[in-house]
Amino acid sequence: MRASRRRRPARATSLDAPVIHPPLETGGGGALPRHRIGDELEFAVAQHPRALGVGADADAGASASADTGTSADDGDSDGNSGGDGNDNGSETGPTSADVLICDQITTTTRPTALETTLDHAAELAAALPTGQETTVLTGGLPAGYDERWHLDAETGAARTVEHNPLRSAEPVADDAVAVRVRGAGPIDGYGGAKSVVALEYSADGTLSSTAYAPGDFGLESVTGVGQKTANRLESQGVTTRSELLELSVAALSDIEGIGPKSARRMHEHARVLESGEPRRLTDEPLPGEAWGRPPLCLDIETDGLSPTIIWQIGVYDPESDTHRAFVERDDPTDRASVLREFCDWLLGVHPNRALLTWNGWGFDYRHLGAFIARHCPEYVDDWESILKFDLYRWATDREETGNALLPGRTNELDIVAAELGYGGQETGLDGARTAAAYQRFMRTGESGVLEWDRHKAYCEDDCRALWHVYERLRDAPRASGVVGSVGSARATGSTGSSPDEGSSHADSTGGSTSEQTGLGDF
Amino acid sequence: MATNEDGDGGDEGEQGDQDDQGDQQAIPITGEELRETFPRAGARESGDISVLELPGRDAATVPNSDVLRPELAEQLEHDLYTHQAEALEALECGENVCVATSTASGKTRIYALQIARHYLDARGRAAETGGKKGKPNGGEKTGAGAGAAAAPTPTAYVCYPTKALSRDQERELNDFYDDLGLDITVRVYDGDTERGETRRQIREEADVIITNFAGVNTYLHDHDRWARFFSACDLVVIDESHTYTGVHGMHVAWIIRRLKRVLAYYDADPQFVLTSATIGNPGAHSSTLIDDQVTVIDEDGSPTGPRELVLWNPPPLPSEEDGNGAGGKDAVTDRVPATVEAPRLLSHLTYHDAQTLLFTPSRKLAELSVKRAAKHRRDRSQYYTNPDRGSAIEPYHAGHSRRNRHGTEHQLKTGVLDGVASTNALELGINVGEMDATVQLGYPGQRQSFWQQIGRAGRGAKRALSVLVAGHRTLDQYVVNNSEYLLENDVEDAVVDTENDAVFAQHLLCAAAELALDESDAGADGLADRERLERAIEMWRRAGKLTGHLETGVSYTGPPRPQRSISLYATTGEEYTVELADGVDERHDPEMEPLAEERVLRDFHEGAVRLHEGQQYEVCAVDHTTPRPSVTLRPTDVAYYTRTRTDVTVLDAVSEESREIGSFTLHFGRGRVLVYHDAYDEVAIHGGKKQAQQLPTGNPPLSMETQLCWLEVPERVESALVERYRDFSVPELDSDLADTAHLGYAGGLHAAEHATIGVAPLELMVDKRDLGGLATLSIDSHLASAAADENGDDETNTGKDPAPQNIAAAEATVRELAMGLERKPASGWFIYDGIDGGLGFSRAIYENFEAVARRARDLIENCDCGRIDGCPACVMDDQCGNDNQPLHRDAAVDVLDHLLASSGDERNVLESDLLANNGGNGDGSGDGGKHDARDGDDRRPPLFYA
Fold first, then answer.
1. Per residue in A18-48, pLDDT tens?
2. Could you name the CATH architecture of A214-275?
3. Same domain, residue pair B627 and B654
4. Residue B795 sits at the chain A interface (C-beta within 8 Å)
5. A142/B544 touch (CB, cutoff 8 Å), yes or no
6. Compositionally biased, Basic and acidic residues: which spans (chain B) (predicted)?
7. Cross-chain Cβ contact A161/B536 below 8 Å
8. Domain that holds residue B601
9. Every domain of chain A and the residues it spans
C-alpha cells in the first residue's frame, strides 16, 4: 500500500542493542528495568503501569541494569538476577527516561459516548515528570500510532491530544504531563497478531515502522511453504532457505504434500530470496519492453488515501535520464492546474510514450483517471488513449505465480528496489508523511511549512527506484530460452492484458518450462 | 402493443383480474367448512375458533393517458390504480415518494414506469441535439471517454432486501421493458454476481442495477469504478422499505447517507422512490431513511377480495398426556402446540384443493412442518381416503440454494405445488402467484408482518382464507382472544434511529474512506451537525483511525476496507460454510447457504440433527477457527431432532441512570450478556418426548455488550413476600432454591420478568425476540461494582476477563461474587437488548416501565388458567431456559402491585399490607431466628432467566 512505503537501506543489523522483552522484564523490587542503546537513548520498561507507581527513579537500579545490559542477552532477558540487589524501592518520584516501554498503554474507544480514552492515564500522570514530554512505546497499539496526549497531572484526565506531535509540539503546562504514545504493535488487518514490527528512528526524530508477518521470514517466506510444509521440511532437517536449496528438486518433491511443480517453484523462489536476484517465471516480455522507447515512470502524491487533491505528479524519463515534477505549491484548492499542466506536457512532449507505475491500477492511474474526469474532463479521451503499464501487477498478478519472483520480504517498491541494489536518497519520508505535510499546507496556506525540495526528491526517488527494478527485471533471464512458443506468441498479442487471459498463458508456459527442467537456468 | 396477461411485471401480476367478479369466485373451502371438516381428537371446543369476515375493496383507476405520455399509455393494457397515478404525478414534479399500500397493489409498476419515462426523456434529448447517437443505450459504449460528449443514459439504482427478491424482480423488470419495446438493461449486481469481467460490464453498461444494502455498503468503497453509473443516476429505489427497522434500519439509513454523498460527488441528485408495506409512520420512516422530504402515497386504489380470517386456538391436549396435575376444571393448561396443529391445517387445506402457504417462525419448523403435514394424512387415513391428493408440499427458506428456491417459486406459481411451508422469506414480494389460503404458525409478532403475510392469499379481487394458529406464547393467546387488537389498531411504526452514536461512528469511518470528510459533511445537509461530527472525528483521531481536519479533509488511516466491519444484521458477521463429510456421496450435498455464527452456536453443535429439504443431517464437526470456519454434515436417519438449551447470565452491569418508583429503584445501563448454548436434548420427531437430555454441545458462549434496565425491589417488599409465599414448593425442582423459603418469591420475580417482556411489544415498538431477561435474588452479583470489589485493585480484570466458558462456570462466578458482597443484595430482574451494542429497547422500557408493568400485571391477574405457576398465555415463555420453573403468579402480581402502588394512588391499601408483614420480620437486620430472607446469603441462589 502506498502509505507504508519507506526507505530501508539493506544492511545487516549488528546486535549491539539489548534484547528487551516486556513480559519477562521484572525489575526485582522497586526500580524499573532500564536499558541503553548506545549512549543516546535510555529505555525504561514497565511490565504493568502499576509498576510505575512503585517504580521510583532509582538511580542505583538504573545504572546496575545498564551496566549489566551492555551485551544483548546478559541479565536482561533473565532479569531477575540483575535486579535483585536493588530492591530498596523506598524512593518515589517521577519516572524519567527517554522512552518508557509499556505494552499495557493503549486506547479504549467508546462509540456510544463518542470518546477515546488513554488507558492507565492516571498512573502515567502520577509517575511521569510534569511540564515535559515522555515518549511511551507500546505494543498495545499498532505501529504508526503517534499521538501526544496532554494529561492533567492530578487526575490523568486528557486535556488535549495533538495529532501531529512532530510538527506542532505545544508547550506542556506545568500541571500537566505530556505523553507521546507511539505504537509498536501489529497493524490491524496486516500480518495477523503474530506479526513483527520493525521501527526505525532517524536522527531528526522521525520514526518509520514496517510490519512483517511470521511468514515473511525463513522458510515460510518461500512461495508455497506454509506452516505445514515448513514442519515437514524441518523433519527432513531443512530449516533454512539455503538448506532448502541444497535439496534437489527431485528430493523435494518426494516430501509428502509437495508436488514436482511446487518443488520447482520453491527452489526458484528460495534462490531469488537468497541471491537477491529477481527471476522471471514466464516468457512474457516486460510491459512496454517490445515498445520502441522505454515507458515514463510515474508516481503521484496526494493528501491521503481518500485523496481530495493530487498535488504532485512526478515523471522520470529513462531515455533522457531526466525527471519532471508537477507540483501545486500555490493554491491547494486548485485541483485542476497540476493535472492540466501534466496532461499538456505529456501529450505535447511525449505523445507516444507509455506510462509505467508500481501498483498504478491500485492507486495512481485510478485516482488520476477519476480526478481528470472530474476536474478537467476535456482531457478524458486523451488520458484514456495513453497506454499504461503497471510493473507490480505484471510481476505478481497472475494466477499461482505472477510473471516474476522478486526478492524482499514484501512487494513494496522501496523494499524490492533496495534488495535489488537501489541506493535511494534518504528523504525520511513516506507516502503518509508527505500526505500529512501537504495537509498542513492546505490548512495553513503557508507555503513555508513544506520543504518542497525534500518532497519532490521523495517522489523522484520512487520514480527512479521503479526504473531500477524494471531494468533489473529486464536483464533477468526469462523462463525459457525458447522463443516463439505458443505462449509467447499469445503474450505479445496481449500486452497489458487482463489477468484472465494471462492465466491461460501461464498454463501453457508452465507446460513448456517443465520440459526445461534440469537445463540449469542459473 | 398490449402486453400479455402474466408479463405485467412486478408483483402486480393480477392487475388483469380487476374486472373479474371477485366476490363470486368460490374458494375451495371456507372458514366455516374448515372448522366443520377438520378432524380432531376429543371434544371440539368451538369457542377456540373464531371466523371473522373482512370486506373487500373495489378498484379505483385513472386512465393511463391522464398520467403517461402516449408512448407508454398506449402500451399498457390496464389503467393505472389511483395510487400509481398519484405517485407518478408526484415523481413528475420532482418529489421523493413513498408508496405504502397493500401487497400486490402494483408498487413495482410505479418505479418501472418512472425509469421508462427517464429513458424516453433522454432519448428525446439525444434526438434533439442532432441525433448524435441512434441508440443511446447499451452495447455501443466503448468506454468512459466516449461517453463524455454524448448525453448519458440515465441510470437507476434499485435496492431490495433479499437476493432472492432481486433475481425475481430482475426477470420481471426485463420482461416489462421487453413488452414495452424499450431497450433498458436491468442487471443484478450482488454477492452472487461473478467477479471480474461480468461485474465490470454491468457497472459500465447496465441502465438499472439491482442490489441490496449489504452490497451498496461494500461497493461504495470503489466508487470510482461506478463513476459512469453514479454520474447518470437519477432514481434510487428502496423496495420493501418497511423492512429497514431497528438496528438493520439504522445501518441502512447511514448507508443511504453515504451513497448520497458519493452520488453528490459525481454531481448526481437522484429522486427516491420507497415502497413499503402498510406501516404506522411511512412518512417519518422514509424521510429518516433518506434524510429528505418524502411525499407519502397511501390511498390504495387496488382491489382486494373479501377475506375470511380464522383465529384458531388449538384444542387442549388429551388429558392422558397432561402429566402436570392441572389445577381447576376449566383451566386450559396445555394445548396442542401450534407447531403440530398448523402443519395439520396445511395438510387439510391442500387436501381440499386450496393452494396454501404456511408461514413458520424458523427454518427448522418449515422443514418439520412438511413432514408433519404428511404424517397427519397417514394418522387420519380414514378421513383422508385419497392420501396423495394435494400432497405436493415443499419447504422454503433462505437456507436453500438459489436454484432450489427458484424452482419452488416457479412450481408454486404454475400450480405444480399444492402447498409450501416457508419462513418469512416468502413474506416479501417474490412473485409466486396467488394463493387460496395462508396459515400462520403462531402470531408473527407484529401486525405489519401479520397483514403482509396474509396478503399472500387472494390476490386481486378473489376471496381469500387466512388462518392464524395460536401458539402457547403470551402474545399469541392475547391476540386470538382479543381480535380487536389485530383489527382495530394501526400497524406498528417502523423505527429508525440515526441518533445512535455507535452506528454513526462506524459509518463515519467508511464515509471517510470513500471520500475525505470535509466541511460540507457538517450541518443540515451533511452527515451530522458540526459538534457531533467533530466529536466523532476527534474520537477516531485519538484512536489512530482518522487523520486531518475538516477544513482540509479528514482521511481514513485504519485497516483496509472499514466497510467490512459493518454488520447489517446485528450478527457478528462471521459466517460458517457448510460442508459434506469426507466420503459421503456428493448427491447428498445439502447445498446450504453459509450460516451466521449465532446460528451455528445455537443449532449446529456437534451431534445436532438438522432437517434440511426433507433429509436429516447430523453435524459431525464444527471448526470455529478463522479465517474459514465451517460446519461438516453427514446425512442420517433417526427418529429425533435436537433442541439446544439456552442459558443466559449478565455480568459487569454498570448503572448509567436510575430513578425511584416509590421505594423501588429502576436502573438503566450497560453490561455484558453471555448466552450459553452448552447443552442440548434429543427430542422425538413425533410426539415431542425428550429421549436424551443435557448432552454437552462443546460450543463457546456468545458474548454481547449491550444495554439493560433492571428493577431493584426494596427489602421490605421482598421480606413481606418471601414470608407470604414461604410454603411454595416445586416438586423435583433441581435448583439451589428448591427447598428454601425464597422459592415462592423468586417464582414471582421470574414470572414478572416473563410477563413484562411478553407484553412489551403491546406497549412499545419492540420485538420480544430482541429482548432477554434475567430474574435474580442478587442483582448485585451481576454488577461491575461487585467484580471490582472482589478483585481489588487489579485493573486488568474489569470488564476484560474472559467469559466463563460454560453456564456452570458462569454460575460459579456469580455465586462467588455474591459471597463477596458487603451489603445484602437487592432482588429484582434485568431486561436487556438481545443485540450486541444494544438498540435502545431496554432504554424505552426504562422510560415506560410503569405502563409496561401495568399491562403485565393485568395480563397475569386476568388469565383464567387458574394455576399458581401460570400458563403459556400469561407467565410461561417458550424461550425460558429454566423449563418455566419456578413461576408464581400471585407473587408476581404482588410485586407489580407494590411497584404500581408506590408509583400511584393505591398506596394506602398496600401499605397496610406491608406493615402487617413488617411487624413480623421486617426490621430485624438479619438476626431474627426465623429462616427469613437473611438466613444465609449463601442460600440466596444466583440466577434464572427468561
1. 667 766 666 555 567 777 766 667 778 887 7
2. Orthogonal Bundle (1.10)
3. no
4. yes
5. yes
6. 928-946
7. no
8. 575-638
9. 2-212, 214-275, 296-475
